[in-house]
Amino acid sequence: MRKLFQNLSRRKSATALLADYERDGNIHGTDLVRTLRLKDLVSFGIAAIIGAGIFSTIGNASAAGGPGVSLLFIFTAIACGFSALCYAQFASTIPVSGSAYTYAYASFGELVAWIIGWDLLMEYAIGNIAVAISWSDYFTAVLQGVGLGIPEYLTMDFLSASRGYDAALKLLAQGQTMSQLPGNMQEAFLAWQQAPSIGGIKLVADVPALGITVLITYLVYIGIKESKRTANFLVLLKLLVILLVITVGALYVSPTNWTPFAPNGLAGIMKGVSAVFFAYIGFDAISTTAEECENPQRDLPRAMIFALVICTVLYVILALILTGMVPFQELAVGDPLAYVFSRVNLDVIAGIVAVSAIVAMASVLLVFQYGQPRIWMTMSRDGLLPGIFSRIHPKYRTPSFATLVTGFVVAVPALFMNLTEVTDLTSIGTLFAFVLVCGGILLLEEKQKVATAAHKGFRVPYINGKYTLPLLVLLGAVLLFVYNRPELSAFFSLEGGWGAIQHKLPMLGFLLVTTVLTVLTVTRNLSLIPVLGLLTNLYLMTELGITNWSRFLAWLMLGLIIYFAYGYRNSKLHKPEATATIHAP
């Protein structure tokens, strides 16, 4: 048992990871040229963050929380800020590909590295599914605007059509007319009603989402990617459109729409966690550029913070503009920015927004679809996945098999899944990655104090949390007791049996972790910033509900089965001769 634990926690030091990269670089064709500077990194971060989140999921978040969702963007940005500092230290210490997977290998060990790598595969794949679905919504709207409408059953996913049809039937049975139904419910009803069927199964699928995924996968396969000049141009285009939305939209804001500011209370605001946090998943992508930075130790930390601040300001202003232009209840649509301008009869602006969204989200899809195969490839190099995943195409110099697999796992679900399903899973996966990165910094501080003290790159500023964290925890408890006493009483009530208790499990786990971490912070003088990053991200995970936790844990269990069936025995660190080579000075 002791040997098993040692094997599961075997780590690669930063020195070993760098040596491994330098030794394997020419073999695998990933010895990238370091050309990215600070402005390019900031541009890359904005390009990755401003995508489906700002053009799509911001609508769902605003519909759930009203104007008060702007506060959630700020809180989420703070949680990301703590994580950004932790990412920055890892990126400056280990400037190689692999992102959180590589960082976990250096801090927690192989088993946790596998878990986070498996989690990243889900995060990137499902994030791309969401981007493809959002792209389809805007693309369909543009076609309809020029008179080239596509049948609803070819532009809507199976789940949305089925659920919308059932909901419409209930309302129609209660005496409502078709014209009284919400627009998205009407579309779902028509899609399900008009769709052809085979063997009683309705043929409803989001064909445009499939088409863009196939096209992007093809581009990635043959090695075409955005140059920094193209990325800068696309960011400029996005920012100009967003400034247009803010400037023109501000003229149509009705302050009465901001009252009440939080119509559904704190619960309504926090209901938008998955939609809001999905907006920030691109933040993780900045760390994947470490191998291409001229000075990652200096520029990566700055770029992460700058991109985060810029995007947060834009999200907050846009949330206020959207909820000020129309009642927040109307924003539960796939294309909220275009919708609000159509709502106030500014169809030209709506068309400009829709066209720019097509370009913006296609570029985001390209960035992430290009990055995910590199995670497969990195895990394959370490022996945790079959070698075919790190196979490099002799002509295009891309991980060809991994790219095709990535295209398949994005294209097929995009046909049938809806935006809510995928954003929830993406958000919980991203938050989990952030939790482990913050935890990894804490672990490195404990295990490698000498190494981190000698480290000349960026380090998370050390603030002793011995006194601050207990005060923050106490303040949070007091605020809950004063302002949410009924909800607090209901939470600790045992009424409702297991059906009610299971939904409290994530929060109970958070309270347990908070207690343990507070004790450790007091007794071991832990650094405050990574502790706060870990706790804030873990708290956001609790808001995603037991259903998403169940799906997430099921995915991780599948990953563990694959790891023990293949990765554990085939890991390079499992082989003595390889281990000696990897850890050689």
From TrEMBL:
Membrane topology reported for the UniProt record: Multi-pass membrane protein
Superkingdom, taxonomy of origin: Bacteria
Localisation: Membrane
Keyword tags: Membrane, Transmembrane, Transmembrane helix, Transport
Cationic amino acid transporter C-terminal domain sequence ranges: 528-571
Signal peptide extent: none
Pfam name, any one: AA_permease_2
Entry GO terms, CC: membrane
Membrane-spanning segments: 41-63, 69-88, 200-221, 233-253, 265-283, 304-328, 348-371, 401-419, 425-444, 465-483, 503-521, 528-546, 552-568
Main localization, broad class: membrane
GO molecular function, one term: amino acid transmembrane transporter activity
Protein name, UniProt field: Amino acid/polyamine/organocation transporter, APC superfamily
Species whose genome carries this gene: Pontibacter ummariensis
